[in-house]
Amino acid sequence: MMMRRGGIRLTNTMLVTAGTRFFSSTASSTTTRAVAKETLLGASAKGLGGQIGNPVWASRSYWIRSYPSIHGSVRNMSHVSVADEEQGKPVKSASATDSAVVSNKNEKGIVSYWGVPPSRITKEDGTEWKWNCFRPWETYKADLSIDLKKHHAPVTFMDKLAYWTVKSLRVPTDIFFQRRYGCRAMMLETVAAVPGMVGGMLLHCKSLRRFEHSGGWIKILLEEAENERMHLMTFMEVAKPKWYERALVFTVQGVFFNAYFLGYLLSPKFAHRMVGYLEEEAIHSYTEFLKELDKGNIENVPAPAIAIDYWQLPPDSTLRDVVMVVRADEAHHRDVNHFASDMHYQGRELREAPAPFGYH
Ligand SMILES: [Fe+2]
Ligand SMILES: [Fe+2]
């Protein structure tokens, strides 16, 4: 009985903690604020050069830097400076003074003796580049002329398995989202950004184990993951996820990451083929999204600023323009993944063919 009560209490505590940490919007908004403030802090750091090496400043500045990004919102309040821990000083709890340090972040600089300069990047017109998550040299103009109708007809058993796995995943997706394409796109991008990261990571480890080059495929797959993540960063500007959608992402990611990891270990041929079909489905979803926009069922709002800079779009672009470039990206991912699977089918290793850099 005691054990049972203890178990229930523990479960309740875990649910409350997990709910606060992972499903609330606090953590993400805090991080966003922190990025903005860190930029400002970096800008004023030079003016505080005389303070460098001062242990108080070093300690406080690390606290500010680590405050939002490492820990969740609740745990932050009891967070202590790593510098203090490293120096073996007694650990202190956050106090009103600490809060004051946080609230005055805009006026203080991040001071560090590590010599890492704050990066200051400007656009071609001289105005400041405002995104820390990507840089001007990572932006590009999407190739909208790509053939959207290309399809790999499944022939082998493995192809058919990959094809029907993707098709069957579409059923619950259609039921859950129906015609809410903005939300659907945002949620699906949380899944689409996983395969590239898993594949890139596994190729990275393989390269280390075998003392051999990757042919550029590690970078290509990681870039695909980053590109998909940018799709997500864009769509979350137009569709705000609800708490239960965040919870769903949490669950799906836990399952999909591990399943794809195992799948890629067992058969990269199957894994890439499946992603190829997922991308074909993504093209279909974005085509439906465009139809809804054209019918007026979804408001064609101005394009988010992040999308305008990332895809080098004209300033007056709209959501429709964004969906067009995202769909073109998906078509490129489709080609790359079917190509990778074809190579495996021919008994070749990916590193034997140069990775398709700049193919987007
Ligand atoms: Fe995507
Ligand atoms: Fe994609």
Automatic annotation (TrEMBL):
It catalyses: 2 a ubiquinol + O2 = 2 a ubiquinone + 2 H2O. Its cofactor is Fe cation. Its EC number is 1.10.3.11. It is found in: Mitochondrion inner membrane. CDD domains: AOX. Keywords: Electron transport, Iron, Membrane, Metal-binding, Mitochondrion, Mitochondrion inner membrane, Oxidoreductase, Respiratory chain, Transit peptide, Transmembrane, Transmembrane helix, Transport. The keyword Iron applies. Its main location: mitochondrion. It is a multi-pass membrane protein. Binds 2 iron ions per subunit. One of its GO terms (cellular component) is respiratory chain complex. GO terms for molecular function: alternative oxidase activity; metal ion binding; superoxide-generating NADPH oxidase activity; ubiquinol:oxygen oxidoreductase activity. GO terms for biological process: alternative respiration. PANTHER family: ALTERNATIVE OXIDASE. Belongs to the alternative oxidase family. Homodimer; disulfide-linked. This is Ubiquinol oxidase. It comes from Quillaja saponaria (Soap bark tree).
